Amino acid sequence: MIEAFQHINKAFESKVRLGIMAVLMVNEELDFNALKELLSLTDGNLASHTRALEELSYITCNKSFIGRKPRTTFQATKEGRKAFQAHIEALEKFLKSN
Q1: Which residues form the Winged helix DNA-binding domain (predicted)?
Q2: Cβ-Cβ contacts under 8 Å for 58 (sequence gap 6 or more)
Q3: DSSP-derived 3-state class of residue 59
Q4: What domains can you pick out in the chain, each with its CATH number?
């Protein structure tokens, strides 16, 4: 049973970070507002959790302008996809061990 916890990734213990990664796993790219609405988050909450995932190199943040309006988009990185998949597999393994 303890072995099943070895591959649980602490970065995904937060339901917000888990949600961000889950959404980015099925979407190539998503902008800040769409992600905020999908997960029912405040601007500050989303910003702090995306920053944490970005610091781990699990997601990338791209800032651009459409006319004069700023646009921030997020994508899961290859490393982030791999880490998230390993986390999900570890959870499945743990659930099957009980």
Answers
A1: 16-95
A2: 11, 21, 76, 77, 79, 80, 83, 84
A3: strand
A4: 2-97 (1.10.10.10)
Residues in the chain: 98
Phi and psi at 68, nearest 5°, equal: -105, 0
CA distance 34 to 87: 25
Q: Are 4 and 94 in contact (CB under 8 A)?
A: yes
pTM: 0.89
For residue 62, give every residue at least 6 positions away whose Cβ sits within 8 Å of its Cβ, in sequence order, or none: 29, 72, 73, 74, 75
Q: Which residues of 3-28 are buried (b: 16+ CB within 10 A; e: fewer)?
A: ebeeeebebbeeebbbbbbbbbeeee
Residue-wise pLDDT tens digits, 39-96: 999 999 999 999 999 999 999 999 999 899 999 999 999 999 999 999 999 989 888 8
